[in-house]
Amino acid sequence: MNKIFLILIASIFTLNSVTINAQKKGVDQITAKVDGLGCPFCAYGLEKKMKEFKGIKKMKIDIETGILTFNFPSSEMLSIEKIEAQVNKAGYTPINIEIKRMDGTLETSKQDTKVADVGDLKTIKFFVAGNCGMCKSRIEKAAKEVAGVQEATWNQKTKLVTVKTFKEVLQNDIEKAIATAGHDTKNEKAKDDTYSELPVCCLYERIEY
Amino acid sequence: MKHITVVFISLLFLSSCNSRNTEWKQTSILKLDNISPIGITVQDNYLWVSDGDNNRLVKLDLQGKIVETFDEFQRPMHLTNKDGVLYIPEYGSDSIVKFEGNKKSFLKVPEKLDAPAAIDFYEEEIAIADFYNHRIVYFNGKDWKIIGKKGNKKGELFYPTDIKIEKKKIVVADAYNNRVQLFDKEGNSLKVIGKEEKMNAATGLFSNGKEIFITDFENDRVLVYNYEGTLLQIIKEGLNKPIDALVFNDTLYIINYAGKSIFTFNK
Questions:
Q1: What's the average pLDDT block by block, 10 residues per block, for chain A (209 residues)?
Q2: Contacts of residue A132 in chain B, CB cutoff 8 Å?
Q3: ∠ at Cα B91 (B122, B244), nearest 5°?
Q4: CATH of region B36-206, choose from 3.40.50.300, 2.120.10.30, 3.90.640.10, 2.60.120.10
């Protein structure tokens, strides 16, 4: 009986010290999944850009899975939007972001939820300039963010994107969305500023219109 | 008539020998489990590979068997060795690590580097590919100089990733201009090689005074040129994101970043 009592006291003491330690540390734990980290020069570049966040600690990036983890002072209340903006600024495509706050609450980035309008699907194919796996992620994400687009697949070799979408969606709207993300398409040119901010491996040969 | 036939057969035999000696042929594949190689060099009959993803150096025997690993490097890139010392550019710490007898120290460079991607030596000369600054930081034995600036014209660089110093030339992997560029030691561009082949990220380089090997990363191939810029050979089969090359003891070693392997070739 005495033994059980001692173990119970020890357990409570250990649990308390763990909680106190976590509070002392005062950090939120951030996990971000970034798509298309195929080139080490770009992947390590992302690591450098993320370190520009003052206060970032224990950052790790798993190149194969594209999972980035780091701790950040809880008092700063770093938001998902800020992390997304920093990842985008570095030229990468965030897929999912999760913040585990110091008090144990969990915040996750919103998943894309598109409400489809009535109508049948159509498939369209058009040229989009790009180079690598990171370009692929960015192009496909930009296309899928257009309401009504169900699927988008960009082929690195042929440079053609195949989009499955509802009939009402105009090809031009998808091209504009992709150009806004930094990629020249058959009919839409990306802004020079946006192009120049792409990661180095994504700097494709510009299209002459 | 007999004489003519003998001469004809001899010529045929000689010409077939000659062609056999001009092309690199694959001889082995060394699998590198859990290693994502970026750079390769050789020292005392051991291969040294920088494993960028895992922040370490790996020492291998010539058959690809791991002998030892060394941790706590910050994104080690295209390494080299001189007089028994390994020199490792650290992309993550913006510095050049000297690694000798398991001890680390740093090479003093007067210029502030931003993501050094490669280093090479020739006698007292030193050249560093300074990736984010789009330039080569070069020590000619007396003074430090800057070669190149950001751009895509002749003499300009766009994210250089690898470098070799030769007796009279400096050879640069001008990675995202998708070409090789040759400079003299005053920093004048002598020649641009490889534009016709439409490379997609010319990331790794080896040159030996006879041939220039350039890894065409995204196109999964290695291009072999002579110094006039003539394409001699395209090595492609099985390569998966090749990122560096080395010729040692008449063997060509090509490392595959995504393929996690070393391919060897002989003539």
A1: 58 48 71 81 84 81 82 90 83 86 88 56 94 89 92 94 92 96 96 89 87
A2: 200-201, 218
A3: 55
A4: 2.120.10.30
